[in-house]
Amino acid sequence: RHAAKIKLDGGKEGKNRTKDKSDRATSELVMDDRTRVILYKMIQQNHISGIHGAISTGKEANVYNATLEPEDDDAPPIQRAIKIYKTSILVFKDREKYVTGEHRFNSASKGNNLRKVKQWAEKEFRNLKRLRAAGIPCPEPLLLKSHVLLMEFLGDKRGYAYPKLREATFSQESQEGSENPWRPLYIQLLGLMRKLYQVCKLVHADLSEYNILYHDNKLYIIDVSQSVEHDHPRALEFLRIDIKNVGDFFRRMGVDTLQDRTIFDFIIS
Ligand code: ATP
Ligand code: MN
Q1: I need a surface site. Which of 69, 158, 224, 264 has the fewest CB within 10 A?
Q2: CA of 248 to the centre of ligand 1 (A)
Q3: What is the mean pLDDT of the chain?
């Protein structure tokens, strides 16, 4: 199986495409045959019309911006995000601790790499559904094909993704108040973490300012492929780490945070 360079067209050039968009409309993506076939099928079956630049290229996955041409020609393209899990060997060792002890995946947790990445993709798909059902803001999962996840794009109509929490900026208005603008976000996040535990019965297990997006005073939880059931043998250990990472970040932002212990008790009871 050879990696091949392919060009995926960004859809038809409509009159309302800006120059900037047409510049981005065709991108060269390096991916394996299997992934390429999945993407072509998604285009053929009209889930997407084109795939554009990478939003993020990481260790475990790449995330791309895609668009779907709307029925109404005058409407702007519908934005989508596609997360493609990497099937290369290097990323696997780190992941074992999350899957081991997960009853949902025990029977299938041994096997080849593709099988494993498929499991993570499926887990992310299912976990996102659970978050949505509980009303926790996150991307709506739309379609899962093997290790390729199509989801709602969290960003603007032009295809710019919302910033990560760590890159959030605030309007002049909210900065003029005497309150630290990070404080209400901290409170908001504690509520989401509790809901995640109490309603979804999940611990995120990689929660930090990198896996939360921010827009218009609202936080969106992303990257839930490694999240574990609350009865996973290491769930509470992962929860303590999540609490510490979140606390460390908001302390750096000058928020007068609660003690980790207090937050832990708030979340689990
Ligand atoms: P890696 O760990 O290999 O870096 P990852 O598993 O962290 O990949 P994610 O955190 O899910 O992947 O996504 C990486 C980045 O892509 C996010 O930080 C965010 O900026 C962007 N992103 C992910 N999903 C969406 C989405 N639905 N809409 C907009 N942007 C997204
Ligand atoms: Mn991430």
Answers
A1: 158
A2: 21
A3: 87
Cβ contacts of residue 173 below 8 Å, gap of 6+?
none
Q: Is 110 assigned a ligand-binding role in the annotation?
A: no
Domain ranges of the chain: 3-152, 165-268
Give the model's pLDDT for residue 239: 98
Which positions are catalytic? 206, 223
Ligand 1 pocket mutation pick from 51, 63, 149 by most atoms within 8 angstroms of CB: 63
Q: Mark out the alpha helices in the chain (DSSP H runs).
A: 19-24, 33-44, 96-99, 113-133, 172-176, 182-198, 235-252, 260-268
Write out residues with Cβ below 6 Å of ligand 1.
Answer: 55-56, 58-61, 63, 81, 83, 139, 151-155, 161, 164, 210-211, 222-223
Just give the CATH number of 3-152. 3.30.200.20
Q: What is the pTM of this model?
A: 0.86
Superfamily of domain 165-268: Transferase(Phosphotransferase) domain 1 (1.10.510.10)
Q: How far apart are CA 190 and CA 264, in angstroms?
A: 10
* ipTM of this predicted structure: 0.97
pLDDT on residue 22: 40
Q: Decide whether 3-152 matches 165-268 in CATH topology.
A: no
